[in-house]
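Box 3.1 A note on notation
Throughout this textbook, protein chains are presented in two layers. The first layer is the amino acid sequence; the second is a token string describing backbone geometry. Keep the layers aligned when reading.
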Amino acid sequence: MLGICVPVRDTVHTSFAYCLSQMTSYLTRNSIQFNLYFENGSLIADQRYRLAEIATQQKCKEILWLDSDMVFPASVYRSLANHNKDAAACTYSTRTKPYRNVAFQSSDLTDTINHTSGLHQIYAVGMGIMLTKTEVFSTIPRPWFNTHWDQQTETFSGEDIYFCDQLQNYGYELYVDCDLSKQCGHIGSSTIKMENINV
């Protein structure tokens, strides 16, 4: 059983909703059993924890993490599952300038990957689109997700980086599919002014 886990606020993007409906239709046509879980809230670490907890309690073998501001192909699960890794993900850009890759080669979060194709082992990546085997949650201690204060840079790193740190600490391998990543996107928002019109 696949658990599709989506942390949300009050609404989701229409583009995400369309991708989700196409993906669940694809799963149904291909006889892939799944449960869909939404967890509403504003504390992302807590939402991810609750989602992982219910998916493991309901005996899901894998969790497909999807953020509600992502777009992806209908076959995204099968593409990631075919790698048969502890954790496999897509990378994407940040939503605001300066746009940056959210996949990192090392624990230095300025060390973004420079691969453009293929499957590559990495240190950390944002969890907007990530497939994990649920067995990792039986090894990694709770709470699984947390924020971390970096004294040197005086910034917080997110719950996804914390989780990736834990994967590394407990001997799990994390990969990014750069080819699949090209078919995905991170939905942003911007204000268009009259001066932006090409004349």
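The mean pLDDT is 95. The radius of gyration is 17 Å.
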